[in-house]
From TrEMBL:
PANTHER family: ELONGATION OF VERY LONG CHAIN FATTY ACIDS PROTEIN 7 (PTHR11157:SF69), FATTY ACID ACYL TRANSFERASE-RELATED (PTHR11157). It catalyses: a very-long-chain acyl-CoA + malonyl-CoA + H(+) = a very-long-chain 3-oxoacyl-CoA + CO2 + CoA. The keyword Endoplasmic reticulum does not apply. Residues 297-333 are annotated as: Disordered. It is a multi-pass membrane protein. This is Elongation of very long chain fatty acids protein. Its EC number is 2.3.1.199. GO terms for molecular function: fatty acid elongase activity. It is an enzyme of class 2 (transferase). GO terms for biological process: fatty acid elongation, monounsaturated fatty acid; fatty acid elongation, polyunsaturated fatty acid; fatty acid elongation, saturated fatty acid; sphingolipid biosynthetic process; very long-chain fatty acid biosynthetic process.
């Protein structure tokens, strides 16, 4: 057993020694353990510690902080898109095979810095989930959300350690572009309900995410069939993430926008106003469902020998609930 551990340590040392020397002394780049620790700490906080700390507390009002954060992320993402475009993908990079340039100066070094910046941004994105916890929106802390944010820093670290440039930067380029749009939406949504009429395109954000992962998969998987000096192992690594995230987001899309809509139509509440919420729908107003509920209730009362007066009371109760439903609908608008 000791011999096995020794061999593993020697192998690990050799692997780490093959990393890009330009980034060797940068924060978090010595080895993966600090990144793994931060990622696990994030998961522990948003799934366990955070909800426990907030259990007996009122939600924090952090609307202004969220607006500032989201538009800050828009700016950072836009800058990354600009650098990756001007210094790489609109500057002679090949879509079919682009080796890494390890030069310590020039555009190659700028791309390495941009890749490292993209890596750091993955940690900043933890605040997406932390804000949910502070606002006690625990239902938003879904498995998809936590997996997506929790593994990204670890996944990006390996590419940054060994291939901070070349073919791998397509992932950061297109992902940053999508995030410009995504954080613009989140920033506008954080302004308040008055912006809702301009945010009808929410579901298409998920579609855009899925298209992104398809492009990332195709772009990286092709390396397995080409004679390219970019490491095929990293082509496979990136492709695997494209497949994983595509399945996660497509499951979310089906569950949120397709299955719930179908279920609502089957139950006779297709006209109910519904609001998508991280994997489930919250019905805001459903008079048809209320009618069915009270008719069934009154029928049950009849079978049990209940008088017609009770049935009349149920109808009155239904009237009150219907009015209440209409009132809530008005407030929602």
């Amino acid at each position: 057993m000791i011999q096995v551990v020794k061999l593993l340590m020697e192998w690990y040392t050799q692997v780490m020694a093959n990393g890009d020397p330009r980034l060797a002394d940068w924060p978090l780049m010595k080895g993966p353990l600090p990144v793994i620790t931060i990622c696990f700490s994030y998961v522990y906080f948003v799934k366990y510690l955070g909800p426990q700390l907030m259990k007996d507390r009122s939600p924090f009002d952090i609307r202004r902080l969220m607006i500032a954060y989201n538009f800050f992320m828009v700016i950072i993402s836009a800058l990354l898109v600009y650098v990756f475009a001007v210094k790489a993908w609109f500057n002679g990079y090949s879509l079919t095979c682009q080796p890494v340039d390890y030069s310590p100066t020039g555009d190659a070094y700028v791309i390495a810095v941009a890749s490292y910046s993209y890596f750091i941004v993955k940690f900043l994105e933890f605040f997406d989930t932390i804000f949910f916890v502070l606002r006690k929106k625990f239902s938003h802390v879904s498995t998809l959300h936590v997996i997506h944010h929790g593994i990204m820093p670890f996944s990006v670290w390996w590419g940054l350690k060994f291939v901070p440039g070349g073919h791998a930067t397509f992932f950061g380029f297109i992902n940053s572009f999508v995030h410009v749009i995504m954080y613009t939406y989140y920033g506008l949504a954080a302004v308040g309900p008055q912006m809702n009429k301009y945010l009808w395109w929410k579901r298409y954000l998920t579609v855009l995410q899925m298209v992104q992962f398809i492009l990332i998969f195709i772009h990286s998987f092709q390396l397995l069939f080409r004679d390219c000096s970019f490491p095929r192992a990293f082509g496979l690594w990136i492709s695997a993430h494209g497949v994983l995230f595509w399945f996660l987001f497509s499951h979310f899309y089906r569950h949120t926008y397709l299955r719930a809509k179908s279920a609502a139509a089957v139950n006779g509440v297709s006209n109910a106003r519904q609001r998508p919420r991280r994997g489930f729908f919250e019905t805001v107003c459903s008079p048809n469902a209320t009618l069915i509920q009270h008719l069934n209730h009154s029928e049950s009362k009849k079978q049990n020998g209940t008088s017609n007066n009770k049935y009349s009371e149920n109808n009155n109760l239904f009237g009150k609930q219907t009015n209440g439903c209409i009132d809530r609908s008005k407030k929602a608008n």
